[in-house]
Structure to design on (284 residues):
């Protein structure tokens, strides 16, 4: 299924890139897909048309500083509070009253924040491998990612570096699969190098952040709305204890564990897709 590409002008003048899939006139609640910390809208190039095929409009956005969105000269704006506000800004611009959010890692944290701050805008959520007790500041383990090189001489070296960093999370990914993931992760620069497709200043913003978790009160803010939580079997981010606690906080929560995955499941696994299909079959 094809998509159209757009830019939305945010309240501070920056342009936010998004892809638009499916029928904009559908009567079903649309879906907003939000990627992980170092990721972009290309992560959803398989899942978005799949969900659109279920009869829903699907939007896939790049955060400010990522992918096709403008870089922010104020690098401390690269925080999830700004990303949450940008998501609402986008929905306002498109005159969409409410959405289901599919949020991977950082995107899942943003979904929880929006459930607490803008509950009327959230109809439900699919949260991929993150929990409310995760710290999202510079001292966390993920912060070590930014100690790596940001750019590489060619696609071969970039792909090898990415596989070395992420290989334990997806141990059965083929060489073709790694090459495709690299194309979703990196971009060719003007000088012919291959770089991660985000503003390198993101690392400074992440390190400067304090280590405050989103908090269980924001997870509980989903109330009676449908929530699906997906966890990788070997995830080091969404702990088993947090995963087991979730139904105690939200009795309606659906959970699925994806085997042979760490952080994060790619959402193309049969277990993930079956759970997502069931979620959207039940959700408004």
């Amino acid at each position: 299924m094809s998509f159209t590409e757009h830019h939305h002008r945010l309240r501070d003048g920056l342009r936010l890139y998004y892809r638009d899939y499916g029928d904009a006139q559908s009567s079903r609640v649309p879906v907003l897909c939000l990627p992980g910390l170092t990721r972009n809208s290309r992560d959803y190039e398989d899942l978005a048309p799949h969900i659109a095929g279920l009869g829903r409009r699907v939007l896939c956005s790049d955060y400010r500083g990522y992918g096709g969105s403008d870089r922010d000269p104020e690098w401390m704006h690269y925080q999830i509070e700004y990303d949450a506000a940008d998501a609402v800004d986008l929905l306002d611009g498109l005159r969409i009253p409410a959405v289901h959010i599919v949020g991977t890692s950082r995107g899942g944290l943003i979904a929880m924040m929006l459930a607490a701050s803008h509950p009327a805008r959230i109809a439900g959520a699919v949260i991929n491998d993150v929990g409310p007790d995760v710290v999202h500041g510079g001292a966390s383990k993920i912060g070590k990612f930014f100690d790596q090189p940001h750019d590489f001489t060619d696609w071969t070296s970039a792909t090898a570096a990415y596989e070395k960093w992420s290989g334990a999370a997806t141990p059965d990914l083929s060489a073709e699969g790694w090459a495709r993931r690299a194309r979703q992760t990196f971009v060719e620069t003007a000088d012919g190098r291959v770089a991660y497709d985000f503003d390198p200043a993101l690392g400074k913003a992440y390190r400067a952040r304090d280590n405050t978790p989103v908090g269980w009160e924001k997870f509980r803010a989903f109330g009676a709305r449908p929530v699906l939580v997906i966890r990788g079997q070997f995830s080091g981010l969404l702990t088993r204890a947090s995963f087991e606690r979730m139904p105690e906080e939200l009795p309606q929560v659906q959970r699925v564990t994806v085997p042979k995955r760490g952080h994060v499941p790619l959402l193309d696994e049969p277990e993930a897709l079956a759970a997502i299909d069931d979620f959207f079959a039940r959700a408004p």
